[in-house]
Amino acid sequence: MTTITETAQPARTVAFVAYPGITVLDLVGPLQVCAALADTVPGIRTVVLGERIEPMGTDTPLSVLPSHTFDEVPDPDVLVVPGGLVPTLAAMADETLLARLRRAASGASVVGSVCTGSLLLAAAGLLEGRKATTHWLFRDLLVPFGATPVADRWVEDGRYVTAAGVAAGIDMALHLAGRLAGEDAARQVQLLIEYDPQPPFGGIDWAATDTASYAPFGKQVLTEALAGHPELLARLGGGPFLRK
């Protein structure tokens, strides 16, 4: 394996966004894919952006430390936004973060998200008129922002690539690797990280899963997250939770 430390041309920067309370696998799964790509393909580098370079809590005991601030990398080639539960849904009302996403996305060739990270892109006005996905529990919340929800593992619409919940971010990142460096490079990354899922109890049987029974939990999470933002909560009233 060859590590590229310097290239004749400026490296294409794949930037991941960090903010407090993210689901850690939303970040580190795709980050591991893209870091392996950067190790094997010249001219690609990965960074993690935050408002400040300081430890940030996640939804696990593990904290993460951004490598750069948004101001240090204002124009990434690729931007990827991870998701989470209450902190991410609350961040839909965080205009400082949303403005950062708009700025970073403005010149990016690809803008991606994992799980509810797509709701941040949607809240920033970046998914209007586009197909997108997110975690199945919150998929319909894309509608009030003008996006069309799609129940796929990952969804590509122009320069936007959104992934479903959590582990789906790895699939999306492998697609992104193929988009950046070709299928052969993406397959090499898949081999290097040994991504060959074989769940011990098989895949999810969506047809037999009563997803509607989780609506009260979704409503609880959303109302907690937006308790201080009644206007946004009312805007999302068309979603599946607040109708019940």
What features would you describe in this structure?
This protein has 244 residues and is an alpha/beta fold. 34% of the residues lie in helices and 16% in strands. The protein has 8 helices and 11 strands. The chain has helices at 24-40, 86-91, 95-106, 117-123, 168-181, 183-192, 215-225, 230-235; strands at residues 12-17, 44-50, 56-57, 63-64, 68-69, 78-81, 110-114, 131-132, 148-149, 154-157, 160-163. The strands form 3 sheets. A 7-stranded mixed beta sheet has the order 5-2-1-6-7-11-10, with helices on both faces. Strands 3-4 form a two-stranded antiparallel ribbon. A two-stranded parallel ribbon has the order 8-9. The radius of gyration is 18 Å and the shape is globular. The relative contact order is 0.14. Mean pLDDT is 94; it is low at 1-7.
User: Given the C-alpha coordinates, what overall shape results?
Assistant: globular
Number of helices: 8
Uncertain runs: 1-7
Determine the structural class based on helices, strands and strand pairing: alpha/beta
Return Rg in Å. Answer: 18 Å
Helix amount: 25-40%
Average predicted confidence as pLDDT: 94
